[in-house]
Predict the structure.
Amino acid sequence: MKEGAMTNRMDEELGTKIQQKLSVHPQLAPYALKTRVYPTGTVQIQGIVDVLEEKLQAEELIWSIPGVKKIENNITVCTDGQIDDFDVAFEVAEEFLANPEVPVSVGVKVTGGEAQLMGRVSNFSQAQEAVETAAKARGVRVVINHLKMADNLDDASLNNQVQSALMAVPDLIPGRIKSITQHGTVTLFGKVPEGRASLALEAAMKVPGVKHIKNSLNQQTTEIDDQITIHFIEQIAANPYLNQLPIGIHVTGGRIIVSGVIDSLKAKRDIEDILHRLPEEFKQDIHQIENQLRLEQ
């Protein structure tokens, strides 16, 4: 079979799988959403739904199907009858009141169907809950998250709290999941049994100060910057003295920034030794090392 014919057949099979999943979904099936699959693995979906939550559900469902590489979500959120921004804001507020997981400190402003969430939350889990809850309200076409985190920890301290939260989960093996924290965004990586990854994500989400979660669990490969970061963190974790200190690393485009608080010159020398002993395959990608460690004796 020629390559073009093989590609067309694979696209048709992918399209069939998508339509089958949409046709049996209890909320999405009545809308008869249409999809089109392109040779690049791009899926275009269109149709009309009642609330934003259903638009997002359709996208999440399609992402769950192997072979999908990109989604163009052209679904329109449309409600019956006339509804103005005041009505939409009222609907969102009602949804918030009905959900005890959304704190009373969260408010909303609606302009042209765009719901802007404002206020303060304790952690990423609360922010995510507020966004998902707002998406259920009638008339909301898009949700913009302007929520602020109540706690503002440095990345090293925040990463330590994430690790503590992971170790406290009974069904997770201590040390199997590692984390990187950069500007409040936590990346989780490592190998976990099927069905356990969600436990790790939920634990990290609830840590005060976490702004976003990046799930790299069970991935076979990572970008070179992440590989350097992972190697550094593993070396720190293997040192019984250094792994007790709030040390963080940020790697972007071959530039390494090490930060945190240390309590001795020996700790400083040990960290520098780890950086100088990076594997050869990393060295060609490293252009600069910046030491921002703070010594407090």
User: Anything to note?
Assistant: The chain has a mean pLDDT of 83. DSSP finds nine helices and 13 strands in the chain. The chain has three domains: 3-77, 85-149, 155-295.
